[in-house]
Amino acid sequence: MGQQFSELSDKHIEFIEKQKVFFVGTATNDSRVNISPKGMDSFRVINSNKILWLNVTGSGNETAAHVQSNPRMTIMFMALEGNPLILRLYGQAKVIHQSDELWNEYFPLFNPLPGARQIFELDVDLVQNSCGMAVPFFDYAGDRQQLKDWAVKKGESGLKDYWQQKNTQSIDGLDTNIVEKNIK
């Protein structure tokens, strides 16, 4: 049976630290809902009500566009091994671009990832767990290297060109501000 909490407990944080994948959900009031899988050691719990995750360059930039228009965000973890559990974090998020003051404070909390483009900060106002008994078991075989290799091959200049070509707007035409905030 599901339970709700106003903050992350030590048990929740321990569960999160063991997970290899999480999902981020965002939407504006009238956009498509975006659900994006994440991994690559890009998640950090700052305290019982604040988390950060480092976003790397991808084919779209929906989350950044959504959060700047409507800051609500849901993050979901699910146990793929061990005891079943689904854990959702709800709250208000903000996008932190490389030119923002907080970037220099938060970026060192992560192992550098090629293609890093934004950090998201989520102020958690609700934590919910549910059983997860319908989630199948999966064995972790390792991280994929293709995205890291692609970003290294592109280089800093190539990534900025890619951002201009592919990451400036959401699929619904919302601005991401990546060029204005990250390209100097």
TrEMBL record:
Residues 9-130 form the Pyridoxamine 5'-phosphate oxidase N-terminal domain. Pfam families: PNPOx_N. It comes from the Bacteria. Coiled coil: none annotated. InterPro entries: Pyridox_Oxase_N, Split_barrel_FMN-bd. This is Pyridoxamine 5'-phosphate oxidase family protein. It comes from Aliikangiella marina. The lineage of its organism: Bacteria, Pseudomonadati, Pseudomonadota, Gammaproteobacteria, Oceanospirillales.
